[in-house]
Specification:
Elements: E1 25-26, E2 28-29, H1 33-49, H2 55-68, E3 70-72, E4 75-79, H3 83-106, H4 108-135, E5 137-139, E6 142-146, H5 150-166, H6 172-184, E7 187-189, E8 192-196, H7 200-227, H8 229-237, H9 244-282, E9 284-286, E10 290-294, H10 298-314, H11 320-333, E11 335-338, H12 343-353, H13 361-364
Antiparallel strand pairs: 1-11, 2-3, 3-4, 4-5, 5-6, 6-7, 7-8, 8-9, 9-10, 10-11
Pfam families: DUF898
InterPro entries: DUF898
Keywords: Membrane, Transmembrane, Transmembrane helix
Length: about 375
């Protein structure tokens, strides 16, 4: 039986005792960009020196740092995967790709058949990856677990995205709901289950904001393109009539137009992601009575994500650790749990029940196919 570490003596009262109505215990992130930079730069250098082999161990070091600094009720989470497990999974994927490319070159029909076979196995790989990630994660010495099957992964990660793409995003909320239901309803902590049933109507409200951003953005880009339509036509049909300086300006405008086009969809996607996360997490419960919360500000989340990318690019990647810590801190601070009852008694009961998955899983089944 897996036992959690005991709570402090004062756990039965005060901020760690019985949660008042509406009192959410917030997560926090205690790491710093400076501290993570040391881990990040070593990971980069060793990955380069070992021609990518060390990247498996780099992932373990990175996850252990971020999990360990994600704190709830004064205690961090733990990540138990080993680099060898991740490396084995990656070698299997690499070997498959090598065989696939060889067959595609010399026996095209066999290569196509192998690709179709891979697509059939994608749901199984997704389910296995989620299970691995859950089972190598623990909180207070109690492991998480994931019990989802390949059929559910097929609906959530294959059918959903295809339907969303074919309908130009109109049914994206339905796909998002399938994904969050699949993950949330199959997640376990010890013997206790999580569950979520986000309202499709509420998700569509978030979708409507993103759709409005896309429509408005495309109208603005289209308006300026219309104003310069005659110039563009002349540049295409009779480029010799356009002065060299104006040709440069036209090229700049075209590049800027493409950038704005993708930026519009990027901003809309970030706004949608934050909104859907709020809906799905806030509809989730743990053990049927403890409620989860996410209250990300769409505007601030989008600003942090975009400014992180800009700062990372301007500094040639050197500020990537700072950006990662900045986002982790914000997301954690906007995430919480409202416990129904005495927190100490809740976790003591979970610890006494033990985990559905023991540490022996790590030795007999622990391969990660994710990158």
């Amino acid at each position: 039986m897996v036992l959690a570490e005991p709570f402090p003596a004062q756990i039965g009262q005060g901020s760690f005792g019985r949660s008042a109505q509406g009192d959410y215990q917030r997560l926090s992130f205690t790491g710093s960009g400076k501290e993570y930079f040391g881990i990040w730069i070593v990971n980069i250098l060793l990955t380069i020196v070992t021609l990518g082999i060390y990247s498996a161990w780099a992932k373990v070091r990175r996850n252990r740092y971020f999990y360990g600094n994600t704190v709830l009720l004064g205690r961090g989470f733990e990540y138990h995967a080993r680099g060898g497990q991740i490396l084995i999974g990656r070698l299997i994927v690499f070997a498959y790709l090598v065989v696939y490319n060889i067959l595609l070159t010399f026996v095209p029909l066999a290569g196509i058949a192998l690709l179709l076979l891979l697509l059939c196995f994608v749901p199984w790989l997704v389910a296995r990856g989620l299970r691995f990630s859950a089972r190598v994660t623990s909180y207070r010495n109690v492991r998480f677990d994931f019990v989802g099957r390949a059929g559910g992964a097929f609906l959530a990660f294959i059918v959903g995205p295809v339907i969303a793409a074919l309908t130009l995003g109109i049914l994206a909320p339905l796909a998002s709901r399938w994904t969050y239901r699949y993950i949330g309803n199959n997640l376990r902590y010890g013997q206790k289950a999580f569950s979520t049933d986000p309202s499709i109507g509420t998700i569509y409200k978030s979708w409507a904001i993103s759709a409005a951003i896309i429509i408005l953005g495309l109208l603005i880009v289209g308006f300026f393109a219309f104003l310069n339509f005659a110039v563009f036509v002349t540049a295409i049909e009779s480029p010799d009539l356009i002065p060299a300086e104006m040709q440069v300006s036209i090229v700049v405008l075209v590049v800027l137009g493409y950038f704005l086009f993708f930026a519009i969809f990027g901003v809309a996607a970030l706004v949608y992601r934050a909104g859907v996360r709020n809906v799905a997490w806030s509809a989730a419960t743990f053990d049927g009575k403890h409620r989860l919360l996410s209250d990300l500000s769409r505007l601030r989340y989008t600003w942090i994500a975009i400014s992180n990318v800009v700062v990372t690019l301007v500094t040639l990647g050197l500020m990537r650790p700072w950006a990662a810590v900045r986002m982790a801190r914000y997301v954690n601070e906007q995430t919480g749990v409202r416990f129904d009852g005495n927190v100490g008694e809740i976790f003591s009961a979970i610890a006494q029940e033990g985990s559905a998955v023991g540490s022996e899983f790590m030795d007999i089944e622990g391969f990660d196919f994710g990158f």
